[in-house]
Amino acid sequence: MSLSKTSLLDNVKKQFTFKLKAYKQVFISLIFIQLLAVFFSFNGVGMMGSSSESIEIDIQFYSADMVIIFTIIWAFITAILITTTAYKKDDFTFVTNQLSSNLSNMLFLLTGSIVGGITAMLSTSLMKIIMNIFGGLGYISASPSLSEIVIGYSSTILYILLFSGLGYLFGTLVQISKAFAVLIPGVFIGAGILGAGSLGFEWVKGMYQFIFTEPSVLVFVLKVLVIVAMLFTSSIALSNRMEVRE
Amino acid sequence: MNVIECRGLTKVYGKTKALNHLSFTIEENKITGLIGRNGSGKTTLLKTIAGYLRETSGEIKVFSEKSFNNLMVSANVIYINDQMNFPTALTLREVLNVSAMFYEKWDHELANRLFDYFSFQSTHYYNDLSKGMKSTFNMIVGLCARCALTMFDEPTTGMDAAVRKDFYRALLKDYIAYPRTILLSSHHLEEIEDLLEDILLIKEGREHLHMPIGELKEWAIGIQGLSENVEEWTRNKEVIYSKDIGVNRTYAVVKNNLSEADHQKAKAADLALTQVTSSDVCVYLTSKTKGGIDDVFIKD
């Protein structure tokens, strides 16, 4: 009997198509999480008030920040989820090896980040409509320029991608040893409690500043892309010798 | 061409050796039965062949390539067991469609016909199926993938008698039409022995016997008679199994390489020689002790 031939590229494509179908719950949960975040956002993300003798002004700020944060959490959890044994075994039920399974997962997370980022940004439109109907008096909406929109969308997508890369590495480490499931949150929460910037935890602060306070957009994009590439490459390297077990 | 070549294969889990210096080769287009007791390493062996597990030492080659984490091996091998995972979000029909996308030689028409024959519903989900239905569905995927190396690990778990018969018949028919290498592990040798060409018996992670099934049927012979006569007759022979039956009578099994003199002696001592079925031979060979469960209950 002749043997079937398959190339890595071809297989990654097939795995990716398969995952778009098989992981559809992931997108359903995205919709729910974003709607929930929109709902929470109606409390306003900020408030300002001032009054003089005869005038009182109350200003409430509304933005998609909450939706973006929820989407980031969603991406982080989704990335962890698809590294778990059940999902790995699904891949190996069909044709794959660790490399193509990882590559297709990454393509899937990239797609998820783009979809999540765009819908998160679009949620402002939904909020504007709702505010117009139910909102209070004197509703003013910002009208950003095109370049602001582009920067807004791309940086949102990149943040989401960054956290999905982080989640993916975290999930991979947990698959290697369950000890990491305790160790990694322990280190981060511990660093938070002990206070970043003291007791040798400067690196937490440094890391935060390195990524989140970058003034140049281009440098920010480059930084995030390099970090994401590093996260995914280390996940691939770590899982390439891993076995598929129960 | 050898499909599987295995030399000194060892797989260690923690402190237990699941596979212990296993060596064998399996040729193209043969149906081989993998027989062994619970915990003898059958599943570990099959998973190593499928490339899920990495060998601790030794060498395992499938289609002349190392099997672990190998895309070519994955494309040409299908491993069906009773703990298979299918994506939970996909309906049964969608699972078949996805399989068709991955497996180059997938026969979609046959899959659909088997799907209807076993009255599966397109909109049902795999996880909602009963144990026997899951096994039946696994079998459809395993057969229709037409992989050059097809491995079934306890494929009939939970199936009722009728479906089991259907399965063996379907397997044979499809094998005849599209010959391929098949590895079949089962506890029910008597059910599958008509299907098998070869048998690979493993015990404690080692290869114990590897021979055509026809030879196995002749491999051992049973002898029965008065205990002292049986004892006398089997003195210089390797007794594979012995059991007391009734008062003063013993049944023993020895390897079937008897000389003419042995036959005459047996006749003189009024001993009856009987054939031993291949499944009994397997049970006797793989048992860890000489006695049986009865000995556990003898207190003295």
What does this structure look like?
The complex is a heterodimer of chains A (246) and B (300). With 246 residues, chain A is mainly alpha-helical. Chain A has one domain (8-176, 214-245). Chain A is 72% helix and 5% strand. Chain A is built from nine helices and two strands; from the N terminus they run ααββααααααα. In chain A, strands 1-2 form a two-stranded antiparallel ribbon. In chain A, strand 1 and strand 2 (56-61) form a beta hairpin. The two termini of chain A are 31 Å apart. Chain B is of the alpha/beta class and 300 residues long. Chain B has helices at 42-50, 71-76, 92-102, 108-117, 131-144, 161-177, 189-192, 213-219, 227-233, 260-268, 278-286, 293-296; strands at 2-13, 16-27, 31-35, 57-62, 65-66, 77-80, 149-153, 181-185, 198-203, 206-212, 220-226, 239-244, 249-255, 272-275. A six-stranded mixed sheet of chain B has the order 6-7-8-3-9-10, with helices on both faces. A four-stranded antiparallel sheet of chain B has the order 2-1-4-5, covered by helices on one side. In chain B, helix 4 (108-117) packs antiparallel against helix 5. Chain B starts with a strand and ends with a helix. The A-B interface holds A 1-6, 8, 11, 14, 17-18, 21-25, 86, 89-90, 92-100, 240-241, 243-246 and B 28-29, 47, 51-54, 63, 69-72, 74-76, 83-87, 89-90, 94, 98-99, 101-105, 147-148, 178-181.
